[in-house]
Design brief:
Layout lengths: L4 E6 L4 H12 L2 E7 L8 E3 L5 H11 L3 E4 L6 H6 L1 H20 L4 E7 L23 H19 L6 E6 L2 E2 L12 H8 L7 E4 L7 E2 H16 L10 E3 L8 H12 L6 E4 L20 H5 L9 H13 L1
Helix pairs in contact: 1-7, 2-4, 4-5, 6-8, 8-10
GO molecular function: methionine adenosyltransferase regulator activity
Pfam family, one: RmlD_sub_bind
Protein name: NAD(P)-binding protein
Length: 318
């Protein structure tokens, strides 16, 4: 591939977006990111995804061959508290971006989620063409975003340039633990050291924590693969990537306690599953099959969860 390829990553100040941007920067792409509150005007361009004119201006300035759309409201509980704002970002902004990109022959990789599936017992692993059925508003808005991307590219006759990449729960280098539903469990383990602490932790839903660096690499490899093909219309439009490491949240706390040498007797495992009265219902097991990515010859290996955290903790202690 020639050295004049350019990439644009939305949500590039977030947990995942940072690593996607780095993956493109490390290769022969000229890469820019977008952000709203933490843009530096150089590598991260300020962009309000709710403003169609701003999206158009940034795209026309950067002239990317590929856009990776990782910006989203992605915390289910926060989504429930702001359904209108979430739909504006996860669905409406996605459609605007897809329409602009399709009209300019730009490859768009839309980051979606395993929560588009119902996650009922014995259904997983899900293939990329399996029937969807979100259990919460977050999963529904991300599924609606998927439809928006594929519809806009179909309408423009640009099939094979609009792609969906579904990923599960994320972990990795974070500016603050709360950026990740996995990293934040390290804080929980520390909190469990306090006298009188009593913490209830889910020990029912199965999760497949996947490192953001691995997802960044896969996004780059997908872009290279699709941009290098003339027969894109025959290639799959929905792709899935996931680690095979499987844990409940309580088991992740156990891993952290072992690595840190901390006692977690004050953390109580909860095997009851969803509270039927809770506004956000979480799926039991949404494990994603990576068969479609493998069929393209794309490396689906991932970092070892325990090994990564051992190195992270060791580096932090130095």
């Amino acid at each position: 591939m020639s050295g004049n390829k350019s990439a644009l990553v939305t949500g590039a100040t977030g947990l995942l977006g940072r690593q996607i941007l780095r993956a493109f920067e490390r290769s022969n792409f000229t890469a820019k990111g977008t952000g709203l509150s933490r843009a530096d005007g150089h590598s991260i361009l300020k962009l309000d995804l709710g403003n169609n004119a701003e999206i158009q201006r940034v795209i026309d300035d950067v002239k990317p061959q590929v856009v990776v759309h990782s910006a989203a409201n992605r915390f289910p509980d926060k989504v429930d508290k702001d359904p209108e704002g979430t739909r504006a970002l996860n669905v409406l902004a996605t459609r605007s971006l897809a329409k602009l990109c399709a009209g300019r022959d730009i490859l768009l990789i839309y980051i979606s989620t395993d929560y588009v599936f119902s996650g009922k017992p014995r259904e997983a692993p899900y293939e990329s063409d399996a029937a969807t059925g979100p259990t919460n508003l977050y999963g529904q808005t991300k599924l609606d975003g998927e439809h928006a991307v594929l519809e806009e590219y179909d309408a423009a006759g640009k099939q094979g340039l609009g792609l969906v990449l579904r990923v599960p729960v994320l972990y990795g280098s974070a500016e603050m633990p709360s950026e990740s539903a996995v990293n934040v469990l390290m804080d929980v383990v520390w909190k469990a050291q306090e006298d009188g602490a009593k913490i209830n932790m889910d020990h029912w839903a199965l999760r497949y924590p996947t490192n953001t660096e691995d997802i960044g690499r896969v996004c780059h490899d997908i872009a290279v693969h699709y941009l290098g093909r003339d027969d894109r219309k025959s290639l799959p439009k929905i792709l899935q990537f996931s680690s095979e490491d499987r844990y409940t949240k309580y088991e992740i706390c156990q891993v952290f306690s072992e690595i840190m040498g901390l006692n977690i007797d004050r953390i109580e495992p909860n095997t009851e599953g969803n509270d039927p009265n809770a506004s956000v219902q979480r799926p039991y097991d949404c494990h994603l099959s990576t068969k479609t990515l493998k069929s393209l010859g794309i490396d689906v290996s991932t970092q070892d969860f325990i090994g990564w955290w051992r190195r992270e903790v060791r580096a932090f202690r130095k």
